Amino acid sequence: MMTNHFKIAFRSLKRHKAYSFINISGLAIGIASCLIIFLVVRYELSYDTFRPSYRNIYHVITEDKGPDGTDYTPGIPFPALEALRTDFPQVKLTGLYYAYGTQVSVGDIQNSAAKKFIEETGVFFCEPEYFDIFNATWLAGNASVLKDPGQVVLAKTMAQKYFGDWKTAIGKMIRLENAMDLKVAGIIEDVPFNSDFPTSVIGSFETFKNSRYYSYTTDWGSTTSAFQVFMKMPENLPVENVQTQLKGLADKYYSNTGPHKISNSLQPLSEIHFDTRVPGLGDHVTSRSTLMTLSMIGLLIIVMACINFINLSTAQAVTRSKEIGVKKVLGSNRKQLFFQALGETNLIVLLSASLALVIAWLALPFIKHIISIHEELSLFSVQSVVFVLFIVIMVTALSGSYPALILSGFKPAAALKNRISSATIGGISLRRGLVVVQFAISQILIVGTIVAVSQMEYVRTADLGFNKEALLIVASTTDSVAQARHETFKQALLQLPEVSMASLSSDIPSSENNAGTNFAFDHRDDEDFTLYTKQGDADYFKTFGLEFAAGGPYTATDTTGSVVVNETLIRKLNIKDPQAAVGKQIRTGGGKWKTIVGVVKDFKTNSLREEVKPLLIAARKSRFCMVSLKLKSTNLAKSQQAIEKVWDKFYPEYAYRSVFMDDNIEDFYRQERQMALLYKIFSGLAIFISCLGLYGLVSFMTVQKTKEVGVRKVLGAGVGNILLLFSKEFTVLIGVAFVIAVPVSWYVMSHWLNNFAYKITISWTVFAIAMAISLIIAWISVGYKALRAALVNPVKSLRTE
Amino acid sequence: MIALNHIYKYVNQGGTRVFLLRDISLNIAQGEFISIMGPSGSGKTTLLNVMGMLDEADEGEYLFLDQPVKALKEKQRSALYKQHIGFVFQAYHLIDELTVYENIETPLLYKDYKSSERSAMVCEMLDKFNMVAKKDLFPHQLSGGQQQLVGIARAIVSKPTLLLADEPTGNLNSQQGQEIMELFKKLNSEGLTIIQVTHSEKNAAYGSRIINLSDGRIEN
Known about the structure:
The structure holds two protein chains of two kinds.
Chain A (H helix, E strand, L loop, with lengths): L1 H14 L1 H29 L11 E10 L2 E5 L6 H8 L4 E8 L2 E5 L8 E5 L3 E4 L3 H4 L4 E3 L10 E5 H8 L9 E4 L3 E9 L12 E4 H6 L16 E6 L6 H15 L7 E8 H4 L15 H30 L3 H9 L4 H37 L11 H27 L3 H5 L11 H34 L9 E5 L4 H16 L3 E7 L10 E2 L1 E3 L9 E5 L4 H5 L3 E4 L10 E5 H6 L5 H4 L3 E4 L5 E7 L14 E4 L7 E6 L4 H15 L7 E3 H8 L1 H35 L1 H9 L4 H35 L10 H28 L2 H4 L4
Parallel strand pairs in A: 6-11, 8-10, 18-23, 20-22
Antiparallel strand pairs in A: 1-2, 1-12, 1-13, 3-6, 3-12, 4-5, 4-9, 7-10, 8-11, 9-10, 14-24, 14-25, 15-24, 16-18, 17-21, 19-22, 20-23, 21-22
Helix pairs in contact in A: 1-11, 2-9, 2-11, 2-12, 2-21, 9-12, 9-14, 9-21, 11-12, 14-21, 14-23, 14-24, 15-19, 21-22, 21-24, 23-24
Chain B lengths: L1 E12 L2 E13 L4 E5 L6 H8 L7 E6 L2 E2 L5 H11 E4 L11 H10 L5 H14 L15 H13 L5 E5 L7 H16 L3 E5 L3 H4 L4 E6 L2 E3 L1
Helix pairs in contact in B: 3-4, 3-5
């Protein structure tokens, strides 16, 4: 019996090659997309879950409730660590300092010929207590080596990178930022990639505290996001208690007398990777809504593939009627036939799943180009096998049972006489409904793609209020040795024929940096909103092409008493005429009063996700840490080489780092770009799957309508009339789908656009384009088959059987 | 009206040429009622299709209203066909999804009649065939005889000059068949040229002339 079923199933697959191809490839693409999305989502959800105390670790974050809303920072003032230790004796606590993009020199560190590395993943400074909370496998040494200053622990690959063999690394010296010499005292196993704590270089916290390079302070008033505190709760202590106690301590720790109320709260380790309010220590934070969107897309794609399957199988059921009739006459009962049909579906689904595994295997290496995953995802794990099995069962049940029910329900007499048509089995309205669902899904995805892509294009080409063309940013450091050479370095660069302008500054005009402070204007009390500051020399305005609304830049000689502000600040201070602000005095953080000499026209101070912030630009030399160069030459690579040569002459002990301004700005929107790309890929797939389905459906329709086409041709219909007959129905279905897709996609995409302070408006043209695309694609897939049907000689189609 | 001169039609089957029609020469005048008879496979339907321009002869000359059909362009032929020819089938070939009214209306849609004209013409047919009450029914709600009446109404609604009927009574019982034949006779008396293919001597007798076919040849 089983072999008979399989034989029939295989032969019918072979006989109807086109339908089998459509069925199997559609399902395979659906399953493969689903599987890949599953792997990605599972990976994102796995961050730090390998830690034994995953459920008990909490991050203490700082909330700043002000009149403009609440700001969150992952950092906390330095003295808070000891204060919390005293107030929560029952909780294990540790503080860490994180230095991003640190230069590490190894080898002959006394000499500028030492090997220099820029550690983009950063250097951590930790207490020994860190390892009470975050587990690690020690290959050499133990946590207690971090008690003393001047010690460092390296991860295995880092030790290999620096010294060739990690076994020989113990006792060797490394130099950080040309300011601290550390002895390697311990080696740990590498932290897995799916961790937000990429601790590969861990200096002792004491080193950090004692170093003049970093600004450790016992002042409660300043918070840096680089210093963070983590807790491990004992099992018997409810987190809520600690949370309330923390809130209660806010007024003890912070002088909350002004408009700003600062307090601390707990962020569970399980939220760190998904909480977009505060950046993590790792490479990226993925919001849960992004993961939801991805999962939804995966679900939609598999649903579309199932719909194809149901449509094609019910349509194809007609051609199987004779077989069913014969089997029924020969004594097969409905149940047997039902399971035979289901078995056939299962065979197809299994074939598709195998093909899907191959597709996923081929596609996986490319995943890391699309999303921020740095290791290759493994396709074969217990979970993915279970997932694929689950998909196979679900898809078989979902898409197999209805066609099986239809097939097994045929009346033998009618089936044998070929009296079954797709009309009589009543599947037409169901199939129409399913096609509508499919097209609605693909239209939603098309609208999503168009909106996401045009928003990214808008962001890319948006007028930022300054000139970002041919600007190269060379990173320097703020230590006093480097500081001393800044000005001569700048002058040397200006001598290069490739460089037309240069400016020293703390920051570029648009950046993710937020250096905020309280401030007072015109000898009044402190204002109740935050002023943001950037430091730049007198050439800053010229180099970035900033324009003035009133006044002008400060001069190179007058850099201590004069500042420049932006229009937003003036507006927030309720000053109508920018000219009126020039000459007024302003003071930040209780410092000296300085005179406003100019008001710059607003430029985008941050990414376009945020509004322009009230800004002050001053020329505090000690903060300068980059040189921005306006390049003349079109040969950017050659210019960069020339600049690097100058760098090596001035800063032999530092590694050269530079980035082009536009690349830097593009990097702001990495996640959005990735989303836009994902939309593109998956809406392409969705459209492809729905076209496959449509093509299959039309091929069946042409078979079903052979007689009707013949009759109509005899009655005088031309080829055009017949084409119209076929496309009319689908056009109506697409129209219905459109009515569903418009509100859904509008809702979803305006939600997404709310991430941006500066955004496109979704115009009707977006929907019109989506409609046009799906119509054109549908017509093309319908057209060929319909044309063939229209050209058949009616004598053939009307021959009485 | 119709002049066939030395018409041949054949298919190639495995290297040998099988003749469907051999050397058919035939003249049919306006207003005739022709019955074509012959055993199965004698070429009756093929001949009818050639005369109805649904099929083309491989050799020979076909003049319809003195125009050489073979030499006509597709467009002209299609126009000639639309204006002059109506078809009736043994299996009725009504469109299942359309009502009686809509089935009758279909050919008019392809002949560019205005909506008001169409409804007048369809109503005239419904009146003539006593089917006004059934105009909103679907084909499967009708008996075979009634379906064939709809088929005939559909064939003549656009006032063709030639009606081609391929065994119009083949699927009907004798009483229904007789009614259809009476109707044909009446239509013929109103000036319509009719060519029918039939197996039945009795039905053939309604015609003004009988042509006997055997193995693709006209027997005399």
